[in-house]
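Bumping my old thread because nobody answered last time. Still need a sequence for this structure:
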């Protein structure tokens, strides 16, 4: 039998390595930016075209490379960071394996121009699919300029599975942010085509955070609390948000020794520090940095180096939680009892000779007759009666009327089977309990309906149907509102624009990510925070990565339906209750909300009899 095992050619081995290191254009930018930082650059420019598919250029003013180093840098496992295995446990640089440039050159065309400060001329090196095309002398600035073109040109399958330009741009911005947040002392620029996405001058950490997320989170500069703890085990510093900054999907970053990481265990320490201060569905933003002895961590766990093992994990968890609690107390975020009596009203104690205190004497009208109603309707009573009459008239005009919702048959052509929920359709059988629950009699007992959840379910299915039929109604705003978006949010907004218009939003661009909101869906009250609703939709779309139209319609319809249900605060009339019940049982699933919460429950006759023994 002949031998069948052989060594892979270098070009094939590099392509296999590229599959782990270079997953998309964002991976190329990350590796080249980290190399520039390790080269001591103080200015780094990133220029991209076609979201990195067409070309990526990273220019830095670092130390540069000689002609020999430039050629060697594209060889596998060629590195200046490691000479022996023990060096792996004392690393303070970003890259060290020597796989990045070899992997990039295996799947793209790479052109490098580089020069050191002590050289008069630089080196031009061009490599395509791991093959050197040319190497020659060239005039260039000190530092390095990498140009990567036609990514995955020799692997059509990988190129085919790249996402849309908008999606790839989101990944580029995410990786760019993780790097620039670690090095506020470096000037960074990110340019996409003719658009300047980020222009970040040198500054301190808080200025860098505000420059990146200032548009996305209003008043961010005043919502950040500084944290700091220096111990023999670890140094922790950075910023956490106060209670006003908490949102459902907060911006959260961990960094260790200048490297972004994910760490669910440390995230629990942050959440624990805010225990009982925030609702369970809200999370605080944080930007937390760890400086630790490299010998006490292992960054060589995952190819992307975002999963890091710590030797003293439990101790760091405790230090982190205490550090955040201290910051919250220091900035008076935690409510406390104030025992300082300065400035308080002085209530003197009784002194001798002051006489006995006089007690108030109640006055009684002995001729008062509570059963005499003649002439007793005061002016205030008339006003109260008028207010109730006005409330009754307002209840008749609830948006859940036929005028607002249109023909019932258009809402649900096939009503749900109501054998279990046959109820008395007379107004006398209805009762409104605790300003939320509608109670009515049914064949088997009493039916209780959560009014807000019912309206959410009705509105949700109605909006979905209107989206499918393109029949959403819009109402103009008397005073248009302004929506200002960051570059990455503006990309998402453009993707969502057709669906938002189908929902009933009317807006026009004013340039540089600024929009004028001129109209909103008819279900939304004019007094609502339109900008907040749109920002929530954007956030959900970004975090959930919704790209399929069906999923996007679901998310948008659910957000508007929830807002509509929360805005219904007036007491409904009996007519409105009957209409709501009828519309609820025309829904596809009247029993539970979209997220599985109960809408309808039955208290059976047997249960009632059993409770009375």
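Sorry it took so long. Here it is:
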């Amino acid at each position: 039998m002949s031998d069948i095992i052989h060594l892979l050619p270098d070009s094939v081995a590099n392509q296999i390595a590229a599959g782990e290191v270079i997953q998309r254009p964002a991976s190329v930018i990350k590796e080249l930016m980290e190399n520039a930082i390790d080269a001591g650059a103080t200015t780094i420019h990133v220029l991209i075209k076609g979201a990195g598919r067409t070309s990526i250029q990273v220019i830095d003013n670092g130390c540069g490379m000689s002609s020999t180093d430039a050629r060697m840098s594209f060889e596998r496992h060629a590195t200046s960071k490691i000479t022996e295995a023990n060096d792996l446990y004392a690393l303070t640089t970003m890259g060290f394996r020597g796989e990045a440039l070899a992997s990039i050159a295996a799947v793209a065309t790479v052109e490098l121009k580089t020069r050191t400060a002590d050289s008069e001329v630089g080196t031009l090196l061009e490599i395509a699919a791991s093959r050197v095309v040319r190497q020659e002398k060239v005039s260039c600035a000190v530092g390095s300029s990498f140009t990567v073109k036609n990514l995955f040109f020799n692997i059509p399958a990988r190129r085919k599975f790249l996402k849309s330009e908008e999606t790839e741009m989101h990944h580029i911005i995410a990786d760019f942010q993780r790097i620039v947040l670690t090095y506020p002392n470096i000037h960074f620029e990110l340019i996409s085509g003719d658009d300047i996405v980020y222009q970040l001058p040198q500054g301190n950490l808080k200025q860098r955070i505000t420059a990146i997320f200032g548009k996305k989170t209003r008043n961010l500069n005043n919502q950040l609390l500084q944290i700091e703890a220096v111990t023999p085990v670890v140094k922790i510093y950075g910023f956490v948000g106060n209670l006003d900054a908490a949102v459902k999907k907060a911006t959260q970053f961990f960094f260790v020794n200048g490297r972004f990481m994910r760490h669910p265990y440390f995230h629990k320490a942050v959440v624990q520090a805010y225990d009982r201060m925030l609702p369970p569905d809200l999370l605080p933003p944080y930007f937390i940095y760890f400086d630790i002895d490299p010998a006490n961590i292992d960054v060589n766990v995952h190819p992307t180096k975002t999963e890091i093992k710590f030797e003293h994990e439990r101790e760091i968890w405790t230090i982190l939680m205490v550090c955040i609690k201290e910051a919250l107390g220091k900035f008076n975020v935690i409510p406390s009892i104030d025992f300082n009596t300065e400035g308080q009203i002085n209530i003197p104690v009784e002194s001798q000779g002051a006489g006995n205190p006089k007690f108030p004497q109640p006055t009684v009208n002995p001729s008062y007759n509570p059963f005499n109603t003649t002439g007793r309707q005061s002016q205030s009573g008339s006003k109260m009666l008028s207010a109730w009459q006005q409330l009754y008239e307002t209840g008749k005009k609830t948006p859940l009327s036929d005028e607002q919702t249109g023909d019932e048959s258009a809402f649900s052509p096939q009503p749900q089977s109501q054998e279990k929920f046959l109820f008395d359709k007379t107004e006398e059988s209805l009762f409104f309990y605790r300003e939320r629950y509608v109670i009515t009699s049914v064949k088997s007992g009493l039916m209780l309906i959560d009014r807000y959840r019912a309206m959410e379910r009705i509105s949700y299915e109605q909006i979905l149907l209107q989206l499918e039929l393109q029949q959403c109604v819009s109402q103009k705003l008397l005073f248009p509102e302004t929506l200002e978006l960051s570059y990455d949010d503006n990309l998402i907004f453009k993707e969502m624009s057709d669906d938002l218009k189908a929902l009933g939003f009317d807006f026009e661009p004013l340039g540089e990510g600024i929009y004028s909101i001129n109209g909103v869906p008819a279900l939304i009250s004019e007094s609502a925070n339109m900008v907040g609703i749109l920002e929530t939709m954007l956030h959900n779309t970004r975090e959930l990565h919704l790209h399929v139209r069906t999923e996007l319609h679901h998310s948008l319809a659910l957000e508007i339906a929830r807002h509509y249900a929360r805005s219904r605060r007036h007491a409904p009339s009996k007519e409105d209750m009957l209409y709501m019940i009828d519309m609820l049982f025309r829904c596809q699933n009247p029993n539970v909300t979209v997220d599985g919460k109960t809408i309808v429950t039955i208290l059976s006759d047997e249960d009632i009899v059993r409770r009375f023994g």
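The chain is about 35% helix and 20% strand. Let me know if any region looks off to you.
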